[in-house]
Write a structure and sequence with these properties.
The protein is α/β, with parallel strands linked by helices. Helix content is about 25%, strand content about 30%. Helix 1 packs across helix 4 and helix 2 runs parallel beside helix 3. The structure holds manganese (II) ion.
């Protein structure tokens, strides 16, 4: 029976983690450790400057007060699994996509990244769509990916970023292996004011379409495919090695 470690970045109460937990529990044992609040955009932050408290939510299900997705995976592995490696770390299903450069901000993807750092095959799941998302249908798609990975395994240093279009099952065109795309929307800063008239600032983003390059994560979900991007921990830009050779010795 497979053993899973599950987290997310939307909080333990989110529909996405509930649906995925239920689906994974039909396959094996699921240790769920998730933040107590929505931490979307928290990236790969790990809390080591202060202690944290943990509350039990349900059977094999805990929430870390103020903990990030990376904290949750950390606690799941070292505390609740006592250092025993699960077969798979899953993160999600996130409310909203994690595509292109956005994956660097993503707590969802960082949950999977933390799993990979601990030496465990890991998958991040996100919903392409924010309104009327059918998470039970998405979890069904996620299950197919999970089963395939359990069967085939995953190369070293690899984790997967999966984005699922919010479409009825019969309208999903299939799975597509993709590369990380580039986003085409702008961040902007809204200037607001508090009740006393003092300024407040709010970082937000204005979406105006995607860079629809074929083969990218954006392209796949936009065209109704489930996007599967293999990621790696090694961020080295090997192509740039040659460029800088000679500039810094050698
Ligand atoms: Mn999120």
């Amino acid at each position: 029976m497979p053993l899973f470690l599950l987290t997310n970045d939307d909080g333990y109460f989110s529909e996405g983690i509930k649906a995925l937990r239920e689906k994974l529990r039909s396959l094996g044992r699921v240790i769920t450790v998730a933040p107590d609040r929505n931490l979307s955009g928290v990236g790969h932050s790990l809390t080591f400057t202060q202690p944290l408290r943990i509350r039990r939510v349900d059977e094999d299900f805990w929430t870390v007060i103020g903990g990030t997705p990376a904290d949750c995976v950390h606690f799941g592995y070292y505390l609740f699994l006592d250092g025993r490696k699960p077969d798979l770390v899953c993160s999600g299903i996130n409310e909203g996509p994690n595509l292109g450069e956005d994956i660097t901000y993503s707590g969802t993807v960082s949950g999977a990244m933390e799993g990979r750092i601990l030496g465990i095959p890991s998958i991040a799941f996100s919903a392409f769509g924010r309104e009327d998302v059918d998470f039970s249908q998405m979890a069904e798609v996620a299950k197919k990916v999970v089963l395939k990975v359990l069967e085939r395994g995953m190369p070293e240093d690899t984790y997967l970023n999966v984005n699922i279009p919010n479409l009825p099952e019969e309208e999903i065109k299939g799975f597509m292996l993709t590369c990380q795309g580039r986003r085409a929307y702008k961040e902007k800063v809204l200037k607001l004011s508090d009740p006393s008239g003092r300024p407040l600032y709010w970082i937000t983003a204005e979406e105006f379409g995607w860079h629809l390059e074929e083969g990218t994560d954006y392209w796949a979900v936009y065209h109704g495919y489930v996007s599967i991007t293999p990621l790696q921990l090694d961020l080295t830009n090997y192509r740039a090695m040659e460029y800088f050779r000679g500039s810094f010795g050698l």
